[in-house]
Design goal:
36% helix, three-stranded mixed sheet, alpha/beta, 13 helices
């Protein structure tokens, strides 16, 4: 199995957390190769990342990608690393037919083997529908036809055949300043009609809570699957501006990501994060704690007392 992550120096610790959460749930982690594409990482960070994967018996490689010529203003909060996956095909041999891409703000809670085997048919990718936006937010693309690009199962041969990178890049250069979700919007334009829809359990987005509470008409058919996904997610995706590594995070499942971070050299400890907050923000979290607890109970997950297969603790 081939796993792909993309991260700069700032996001490398979070990429490590996502990777560890995936490897923790693999029946055969030794059969996995992890590729990290980066615009550049310190050698110490590269060594630490590689050591984590090797501790599970997985193969690992860190690939430094050359300069990408794009206006940083187009990328907004997403950063340069978000663009690197467009060119994933350049970093895998032709013999490699498939790869699973994961965003760095994810926690994996299930074996990814079913995704590796999902039949793509003539589709280029498999992905989960994005449930947060509307056509105005997504460059006029109908919500039901718009996928979230945080989790992608990619047929690399078809990715090349359809020149996904070239066409998405051209769209970005032409429309970049108008796009709210730059590379995601570009991929949706290029892959319209060429993606296979996965169960929402494989990309449980933060907007799920609001969707189940409000029950918007355009998601009516998806609501039962969203409720099941919230109970037993395969992958949690912390969409939105505030992430679990932010002390002010109110995400009901922030503890899951923080748990797996403690199996890396970059632990996110609840007490330390809270201490970093001004008292007003701490008070805000306390006032919202009841709502957060109620939502947290909707998901069946408890920390594993076994602190990682490597036997090494962060």
């Amino acid at each position: 199995m081939e796993l792909l992550l993309c991260a700069d120096e700032r996001y490398a610790p979070y990429a490590a957390t996502t990777m560890v959460s995936a490897l923790e749930h693999m029946a055969e982690p030794a059969a996995v190769r992890v590729t990290l594409l980066s615009p550049g990482l310190p050698e110490e960070t590269q060594r630490a990342f590689a050591a984590l994967a090797k501790g599970y018996g997985a193969k690992v490689r860190v690939v430094e990608v050359g300069k990408v010529d794009i206006d940083p203003a187009y990328l907004d909060r997403f950063g340069l690393a978000s663009i690197l996956r467009l060119f994933m095909h350049e970093h895998f041999d032709r013999e490699c037919s498939r790869v699973i891409y994961l965003d760095c703000d994810m926690a994996v809670l299930a074996d990814l083997a079913p995704l590796w085997k999902v039949p793509l048919g003539e589709h280029v990718i498999a992905a989960v529908r994005d449930i947060a936006g509307d056509p105005d937010e997504h460059s006029g693309i109908e919500t039901a036809a718009y996928f979230n690009s945080g989790l992608l199962v990619v047929d690399l041969e078809r990715w090349r055949e359809h020149d996904v990178a070239g066409r998405a890049w051209e769209y970005l250069q032409r429309q970049g300043e108008r796009l709210r979700y730059p590379d995601q919007d570009a991929l949706n334009r290029v892959l319209a009609g060429l993606w296979y829809e996965l169960d929402p359990k494989w990309n449980l987005q933060s907007a799920t809570y609001a969707a189940l509470n409000v029950g918007p008409e355009h998601l009516t058919c998806l609501l039962p699957a969203l409720a099941d996904a919230l109970r037993e997610p395969g992958i949690i995706h912390y969409t939105g501006n505030v992430k679990p590594w932010h002390a002010e995070s109110e995400h009901p499942l922030r503890d899951v990501f923080r748990h797996y971070s403690c199996l890396t050299p970059w632990p996110l400890r609840e007490k330390d994060l809270l201490r970093s907050l001004p008292w007003r923000q701490r008070l805000r979290l306390v006032m919202k704690s009841n709502k957060i607890r109620k939502r947290r109970k909707k998901t069946r997950w408890t920390p594993n007392t076994d602190l990682g297969k490597t036997g090494e603790k962060g």
